[in-house]
Amino acid sequence: MSNNKTFTMIKPDAVANGHIGAILDQIIKAGFKINAMKYIALTEQTAGKFYEVHKERPFYGELVGFMSSGPIVAAILEKDNAVEDFRKLIGATDPAKAEAGTIRQLFAESIGANAIHGSDSSENAKIEGDFFFSALEKF
Ligand code: DAT
Ligand code: MG
């Protein structure tokens, strides 16, 4: 499978804290092109479906509540080696463990409210991008 796309969400904490512009700036300066983008609110149902793989984990209810607590920015991003390079750019899940200069280290509040999502594989990037965007909305 080609590895030139990944899927991201700027999460409700980062949107509420006014970080959309700064985060998009970092993403673009790191060489990613925007293939698709929208500003939307998830319901508990859509957030629950998106994070279904985590439904047995103890934080699932908290995660679904948080992700449906306010608007998000969803986007498909394009770059060579997109998935791996984007995971490096965002940093570790827990911002306390994220490397200096990463998006989570700079903008996240906690392990739950951690500012940004990045797909963990090209296969999941395709599934996640298709969950949010129709063919008409992708470039
Ligand atoms: P990532 O988003 O880095 O891929 P993940 O897939 O393991 O991390 O988990 C998905 C999201 O769930 C994560 O971004 C924030 C939340 N989460 C993960 N571990 C958590 C924990 N121990 N407590 C609360 N929320 C957690
Ligand atoms: Mg993950």
TrEMBL record:
<keyword id="KW-0547">Nucleotide-binding</keyword>
<keyword id="KW-0479">Metal-binding</keyword>
<feature type="binding site">
    <location>
        <position position="93"/>
    </location>
    <ligand>
        <name>ATP</name>
    </ligand>
</feature>
<dbReference type="InterPro" id="IPR001564">
    <property type="entry name" value="Nucleoside_diP_kinase"/>
</dbReference>
<protein>
    <recommendedName>
        <fullName>Nucleoside diphosphate kinase</fullName>
        <ecNumber>2.7.4.6</ecNumber>
    </recommendedName>
</protein>
<feature type="binding site">
    <location>
        <position position="59"/>
    </location>
    <ligand>
        <name>ATP</name>
    </ligand>
</feature>
<feature type="active site" description="Pros-phosphohistidine intermediate">
    <location>
        <position position="117"/>
    </location>
</feature>
<keyword id="KW-0808">Transferase</keyword>
<dbReference type="GO" id="GO:0006241">
    <property type="term" value="P:CTP biosynthetic process"/>
</dbReference>
<feature type="domain" description="Nucleoside diphosphate kinase-like">
    <location>
        <begin position="3"/>
        <end position="137"/>
    </location>
</feature>
<dbReference type="GO" id="GO:0004550">
    <property type="term" value="F:nucleoside diphosphate kinase activity"/>
</dbReference>
<feature type="binding site">
    <location>
        <position position="11"/>
    </location>
    <ligand>
        <name>ATP</name>
    </ligand>
</feature>
<keyword id="KW-0546">Nucleotide metabolism</keyword>
<feature type="binding site">
    <location>
        <position position="114"/>
    </location>
    <ligand>
        <name>ATP</name>
    </ligand>
</feature>
<feature type="binding site">
    <location>
        <position position="104"/>
    </location>
    <ligand>
        <name>ATP</name>
    </ligand>
</feature>
<comment type="similarity">
    <text>Belongs to the NDK family.</text>
</comment>
<comment type="subunit">
    <text>Homotetramer.</text>
</comment>
<dbReference type="GO" id="GO:0006228">
    <property type="term" value="P:UTP biosynthetic process"/>
</dbReference>
<comment type="function">
    <text>Major role in the synthesis of nucleoside triphosphates other than ATP. The ATP gamma phosphate is transferred to the NDP beta phosphate via a ping-pong mechanism, using a phosphorylated active-site intermediate.</text>
</comment>
<keyword id="KW-0418">Kinase</keyword>
<dbReference type="InterPro" id="IPR034907">
    <property type="entry name" value="NDK-like_dom"/>
</dbReference>
<keyword id="KW-0963">Cytoplasm</keyword>
<dbReference type="GO" id="GO:0046872">
    <property type="term" value="F:metal ion binding"/>
</dbReference>
<keyword id="KW-0067">ATP-binding</keyword>
<dbReference type="InterPro" id="IPR036850">
    <property type="entry name" value="NDK-like_dom_sf"/>
</dbReference>
<feature type="binding site">
    <location>
        <position position="87"/>
    </location>
    <ligand>
        <name>ATP</name>
    </ligand>
</feature>
<dbReference type="Pfam" id="PF00334">
    <property type="entry name" value="NDK"/>
</dbReference>
<dbReference type="GO" id="GO:0006183">
    <property type="term" value="P:GTP biosynthetic process"/>
</dbReference>
<keyword id="KW-0460">Magnesium</keyword>
<dbReference type="GO" id="GO:0005737">
    <property type="term" value="C:cytoplasm"/>
</dbReference>
<keyword id="KW-0597">Phosphoprotein</keyword>
<dbReference type="GO" id="GO:0005524">
    <property type="term" value="F:ATP binding"/>
</dbReference>
